[in-house]
Structures are given as structure tokens and as C-alpha cells.
Amino acid sequence: MAELAGKVAVITGGGGVLCSTIAAGLAREGVRCALLDLAEDKAQATLEKVRQAGSDGLAIKADVLSRQDLEAACEQVSKTLGRVDFLINGAGGNHPRATTSQDASLFDLPEEAVRFVFDLNFLGTFFACQVFGKALAEQGAGVILNIASMAALRPLTRIPAYSAAKAALVNFTQWLAVHMAQEYSPNIRVVAIAPGFFLTQQNRFLLMDEQGNLTERGRKILAHTPMGRFGDPQDLIGPVRWLLSDEAAFVTGVVIPVDGGFSAYPGV
Known about the structure:
Rossmann fold
């Protein structure tokens, strides 16, 4: 996919496990990466991975819930890297206090935790699409790739706020694909991936116990995943690379599961 070389990708949540792996994978194709993260040290660590992979970019401290931060980041990217070709919305996550358990029923979940989850996963993407999507509209070309979740397609027990927020993100992905193509340019595509179950900091407490053994939930997930394993962050690179490339030039408004078959298996 040589056409990716020299392109510029803005990646929110760029310091996270999944997005740092995606960034390094794109860097191997020659993509320059502007990495936005609330934790500047994490963004800088990912930038080092990008450089080790043979490309370059920027590490920018930014809060995706701040239009001011995003607009400043967009200006910095435009001045330093010249343009924006791709926006990858990877900022997101769950919150333990927005998760039901034996000690916390649905009726006990605190408002601030639920709002945190919904704002981060949906509004963080919405605001980034407003700011960086405008740059794509002015150019008349580009790709917005949202990172949804299997929870958006098949609501999971215990995480009502996260499932609802990611479901809203899927709906917005479809809406935005139509809007950008009809109102600005058919060369602007909006797509999403829906990762299955990956062991990350945000869900490790649900899947593994303190001794490193699978929880009951973890065992159920693997039993319903035909490939019989959790995802590895490297598994995301190929689908992302394809969706950003000209090979997917007629693909927009879709959500691609990367889930080891979880969404296809009813359990019998």
C-alpha cells in the first residue's frame, strides 16, 4: 500500500495500547502520525515507536473534550506536517464506577461516572470530527476512522454506559459517512472498526483476577470466540491499513468487526 507513504494521520488516544500499535503499523507504511493524548508522556512514547518504525510526526497534549485543545492541535498539525489525511478516533474507555457488579446495581451507578464514559467515547469523537473533519472538507478528501467496540453491536452485561456510548458512535459513523459524501466530497470516507476482546488496562479487571487467571466473564468470552483467544493489538493493523488505503476507495459507512468471530457465533 505504497499510496499511504507521506500521508498524515491524526490519532486521538494516541498513547493507548491499541492506538500506539496502530500508529507504529502505519509508520511502517510511511505515514506520519500526530498523536494526541491527555498524557503527553504517553503520546511521546508512541512517537518514539513511530520513529523507530521509520516515520515521524508529533506528540501533542490534548483533551478531546476541549474544542480549544483540538483546534490548537489542528493548527499545529497543519503548520508542522502540512495537512491532515486521516483522523483515527481512538480516545475512549470505560470506568469501573460505571460498571455494574454485586456491590453496585444499575440504580447505584453515579452520574459523574456515566457521564464520563459517554462524553469520552461519543463527544470526544464528535468534537474531533468537527475540528479535523473541517480540514478534510476543505481538502475534499480523506478518511475518518472511528474505533467502536463489539459492545456497540452486541450489548454486553455490566457496562451499560460504555455499550450505549459505542452504539451511538456506530450510528454517528454511518450518519457522518453520508453527510460528508453528500455535503462536501464523495472522496471523504467515514468508517469504523469494532474490536472484540483485547486485554487492555480498561478491561483487564473484568477478564483476569489478581492472580492472572481468567474470570468467569473471561472464560465466557473465550468460549464464544471461535478463534479461542483474545485479540492482539497487532491484529488491528491490517484492517486499519486497508480501510485507510485506496483499496477501500468504495467503502464508507461501515463497521468492520475485528473480533475472532465473536459477533458471528450465537453459542450453539
